[in-house]
Design goal:
The chain is 51% helix and 6% strand. The chain contains 13 helices and 5 strands. The protein has a 5-stranded antiparallel beta sheet, with no helix packed on it. The longest helix has 21 residues, at 89-109. Bound molecules: zinc ion. Zinc ion (ZN) is lined by residues 261, 263-264, 266, 274, 276, 278, 282.
Amino acid sequence: MWTPAMKGERIYILDVLGGNGDRDSANDKDWIPHCFVKSTSKEFIGCTSMSEAFHRLDLARAVNDVRRFNFICKVVQILVEEKLPNLSATARKSLLGILTAICFRSSNEDVNVSTAKDLVKNFGNGLDNVNVCGSPQLVSRHHQTASSLLDLISEKNIRTAADADDESALTFFDLPREVIMLVLRRLPDHNSLLETAQVHEALQEMIDGEDKIWKSLCTFHFQEYQIKKQKTCEKSWRQAFFDLKKYHGCRELYADLIHICCHCKALFWKSLGHPCVRETTAPSVRVTPRQFVDMLIYL
Ligand SMILES: [Zn+2]
């Protein structure tokens, strides 16, 4: 599927499957999601758009893989919050496709509902920017899709930790407090903690009252020397966490993420690898979600 590079999409990608080959013409079963990236160079005869890169890296389907979900959500978050006016109408349509896949997964599996909701809301708000590409009719259609997705997510009757099918059944709160605390200390970031606190007043009380939870979060995200600089006797671990976050930013960890091959410049999922032109395994480096977005927009 060939799409010419459009406004704001100065990416030049060559797919080795027959030059600008069609991914759909390849045997889908054997297809390993990847695309080749190279800045302007005459030896590369093909170029494509952000939407094609999304397609070739199979982002919409990859949201169903729990290992890749967080990486894709972060990419979508950066795009909807910061880059919507930089996207062509085609790229925005692809983004909406990924967003739809995220919402269906969240709705069907009852997971990451608030993440999906935030992404759709920000997408809808971003469309109000006068600089977004496309005809008013197209923008209005994207608005309608966003509000349908929001309805889909909002209709979801979210079961909370305190719900049980019958009165005799155990709930999350029947666990010993120490066990609940251990679960809370496993949450990966402050957003997860603050969202969990909103679910039930007992959780709110634990998260507000137990400094140990915030200490765990500090030690997970920051180095010891960084913590020493910020944490004083007067300052709670909760406050220290937000101060540390302000100065250093949280660690970004992903179970799977996009890598770029140092030899052939292919972008690929680390867990899946790529068909490299070099026979022995070539070194590759990780690409963070922000680098990935910048690569697609500014390369
Ligand atoms: Zn390679």
